[in-house]
Amino acid sequence: MAERGKSERDLVERLALAAVGVVALTAERLEELAGELSERGGMRRDEARQLLEDSVSRWRGDATRLGERAGEGLAGVARQLGLVTREDFDELELRVAQLEHRLRLLERPRAVPPA
Predict the structure, then answer these.
(1) Could you read off the pLDDT of 61-115 as tens digits, one per residue?
(2) Of 4, 57, 75, 109, which has the fewest beta carbons less than 10 angstroms from its beta carbon?
(3) CA 12 to CA 6: how far, in whole Å?
(4) DSSP one-letter code for 115
(5) What is the largest CA-CA distance in the chain?
(6) Separation of first and last alpha carbons in the chain
(7) Contact (CB, 8 A) for 52 and 37
């Protein structure tokens, strides 16, 4: 189990770094890379640019899905450990506040109705 967690953590770290790199990849840099690819790879500049744009789009999607999966995995671990989520805590806090309010209303001295 520990080995699996380590490999998943490594994968998450690598994908997170890739995602940061993708976000930092500007349109200007894409153009530069497309030029280099077209010179070295023997393809047209517009083909190279399209290839890079497709790759960036796919990497961004992968990074988003990875983030979602990591969040789901972490929530599952928290449930297994019996930890309370922030949402559960907020809901319980609201319920306690409502009960305290009702209790104060019940404890308040009632006015005696005139006879």
Answers:
(1) 777 777 777 777 777 777 788 888 888 899 999 999 999 999 999 998 877 666 6
(2) 109
(3) 10
(4) -
(5) 103
(6) 75
(7) yes
92 touches 100 (CB < 8 A): no
List the alpha helices (DSSP H) in the chain.
Answer: 2-24, 27-41, 45-81, 86-107
Global confidence as pTM: 0.37
Residue range 23-58, pLDDT digits in tens: 565 667 777 777 777 777 777 878 877 877 787 778
Q: What is the CA 20 to chain-centroid distance, rounded?
A: 14
- Helix/strand/coil for 26: coil
User: Using CA atoms, how far apart are residues 57 and 38, in angstroms rounded to an integer?
Assistant: 20
